[in-house]
Design brief:
Elements: E1 10-14, H1 17-35, H2 40-45, E2 63-72, E3 79-85, E4 91-99, E5 110-112
Parallel strand pairs: 4-5
Antiparallel strand pairs: 1-2, 1-5, 2-3, 3-4
């Protein structure tokens, strides 16, 4: 049974080369700003709400969680808009992203549904104590 993308669902997104370049460019700009924060040209146009983007370098093919914020239809093939949670303090806004036909790592700018595994039986009871200490 195919899943239907809806707002609030979390999927896996594969970065494209363009995505990785955009993320890394913002992070490099942050490093340059910290090295010279009083550049008169930069200070004159510094927007309100300025954010320093920091995090690990992004690469094409990296897969990150994405929160779906808009679905363009109500079928399993519907494209989506979403916020990609990067390995840093920022996100990447992506639009009109299609579901992948196969492994997300081989399809940049596509999303896949996370693989779920069967729940593991816990050896602890409701209060965090080993189950063997509970009566009955």
């Amino acid at each position: 049974m195919s899943q239907i993308p809806t707002p609030g669902r979390i999927v896996q997104y594969c970065l494209s080369e363009e995505d990785a370049k955009a993320v890394n460019r913002r992070r490099e700009d942050a490093i340059n700003y910290r090295q010279n924060p009083y550049n008169p040209e930069r200070v004159a146009v510094k927007p309100t709400g300025f954010q320093i983007h920091t995090g690990n370098q992004a690469h094409a093919g990296d897969v990150f969680p994405m929160l779906i914020v808009k679905a363009w239809g109500s079928t399993p093939e519907s494209s989506v808009n979403g916020q990609v949670f990067l390995d840093g303090n920022d996100t990447l806004w992506v639009t009109s992203v299609a579901v992948a036909d196969k492994n997300a790592e081989s399809q940049p700018r596509r999303f896949t549904w996370p693989v779920t595994s069967a729940p593991r039986a816990s050896s602890y009871g409701a209060l965090g104590q080993p189950s063997s200490t509970f009566p009955g």
